[in-house]
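Why do we bother with a discrete structure alphabet at all? Because it lets us treat a fold like text: something you can write down, compare, and reason about line by line. To make this less abstract, here is a complete entry for tRNA-specific 2-thiouridylase MnmA. Read it the way you would read a sentence in a foreign language you are learning: slowly, and without expecting to understand everything at once.
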Amino acid sequence: MSGGVDSAVATARAVDAGHDVTGVHLALSRAPEAVRAGARGCCTVEDSRDARRAADVLGIPFYIWDLAEQFREDVIDDFVAEYAAGRTPNPCLRCNEKIKFTAVLDRARALGFDAVVTGHHAKLELDDAGTPHLARSVDMGKDQSYVLAVLTPDQLRFAMFPLGDTTKDDVRAEAARRGLSVADKPDSHDICFIANGDTAGFLTQHLGEQPGEIVDSTSGEVLGSHNGSYSFTIGQRKGLRLGNPVSDGKPRYVLDISPVDNRVTVGTADQLDIATVVAERPVWTTGEVPALPWSGTVQMRAHGGMAGAVVEIDADGRLVVGLTEPVKGISAGQAIVLYDSDNVVGSATICHTVAA
């Protein structure tokens, strides 16, 4: 129970379904009183109180589990290390993988519970053999199947997502009918452990300033400087602060981030086009590799659009994803999720891209 409206209603539905439910709030910050800024952030003292009030209304036991140290190691430290390596991670995906459906699920199972229920907007059904089938929520604007696609079949087998058939507006209306005080509480935004939204400042605090050059991909000309290549992402246009004008007058975008020489390479918009994506560590949602070559759609950002693709597996077990149309600005470190219509087939971590 995060203290938000989604987890409160998901809990209520689990109670209504006749389950013996215990509410658990995760303490993920060592200084939770300092992690709230308006609607940003989550897992604060304020949130824990909101979660407890919801549990009281529902008449269920409520506990707070301190996972701050594990969250720091598995999510925050991973986030910083990925940026330092020139990649762009998704911390929400890592939190689901390492915290909510590893640390929490393992502890819950050890204590005798049958499943972990969350307020994620996604559908999950188990067939007669217990094989999980993960799919998009009916509310495409709130769908979170992308950040759940990293979960293994064993993790999904012990998960429940009661909100997959409900829009966010209907969730809020239901919370109000149930007398839950979080009915109108704003959603948290951005990265929960960077409450002010200043990712570059957060990374500078952890990695220190590392001055380097910004160079043009075609001419090799030095166009500007930066204080740390880790503060850039592929496809970025704003905030480059190029000191020298570009001869063709076209805007420049980040094409490559090289932590080895601390160099950021920029180029024109058409140079962002990607034709092929290579991704490692595949996870197949049902546990079975689909017949190859596989054709369907893929999503490569948490809030990104869909693209048609044909997928093969190379000799190293990596996915080689040929895109039917070029896609701009794909970054290593992000997840690529495979969909058959609305059903999740699997996911992998992008490690390499090939320009169109």
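What the structure line is telling us, in plain words: Residues 33-40 have pLDDT under 50 and may be disordered. The chain has three domains: 5-177, 209-267, 273-355.
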